[in-house]
Amino acid sequence: MKRLHVHVAVDDLAASVKFYSTMFAAEPTVLKPDYAKWMLDDPRVNFAISARGAPAGLNHLGVQVESTKELAEMNARLQKLEGEVVEEMGTACCYAKSDKYWATDPTGIAWETYHTLDSIPVFGGQAEGECCVPEPVAKVSSCIPVKGKASSGCC
């Protein structure tokens, strides 16, 4: 069974862990000095945050699969897309070793499809401010409510 993956870069990991733990009514399943992850079943999502110097906001989205067969199925779907698909086999990323494929949607948001093979003790070997995403591509949505401002009706 597949699981939606969301990764958000944050400025204050402790404040964000408190916020998301309260919102999800669950503590993180992985908690490191620069990273936290919740493996939720309701909704079925792998939600991760990191504070590694990247600009705060949406870092990337993904689909986590449970087998090499599901990963091959997802790769077949990605190959039908217009655009480049980046293959990374046995890569180290976000305290995990994974096989994965990356694609970018028309808006520029990076999507990873991956099968986690094992956990690792370090953050994938990337330098501070880097993550596993081929390049940062997220944009800020104008539909995010701003405290004290009336909505002009969107979304």
UniProtKB/TrEMBL annotation:
<dbReference type="InterPro" id="IPR037523">
    <property type="entry name" value="VOC_core"/>
</dbReference>
<dbReference type="Pfam" id="PF00903">
    <property type="entry name" value="Glyoxalase"/>
</dbReference>
<keyword id="KW-0175">Coiled coil</keyword>
<feature type="domain" description="VOC">
    <location>
        <begin position="2"/>
        <end position="116"/>
    </location>
</feature>
<dbReference type="InterPro" id="IPR029068">
    <property type="entry name" value="Glyas_Bleomycin-R_OHBP_Dase"/>
</dbReference>
<dbReference type="InterPro" id="IPR004360">
    <property type="entry name" value="Glyas_Fos-R_dOase_dom"/>
</dbReference>
<dbReference type="InterPro" id="IPR052393">
    <property type="entry name" value="Cadmium-induced_rsp"/>
</dbReference>
<feature type="coiled-coil region">
    <location>
        <begin position="64"/>
        <end position="91"/>
    </location>
</feature>
<protein>
    <submittedName>
        <fullName>ArsI/CadI family heavy metal resistance metalloenzyme</fullName>
    </submittedName>
</protein>
<dbReference type="InterPro" id="IPR049789">
    <property type="entry name" value="ArsI/CadI-like"/>
</dbReference>
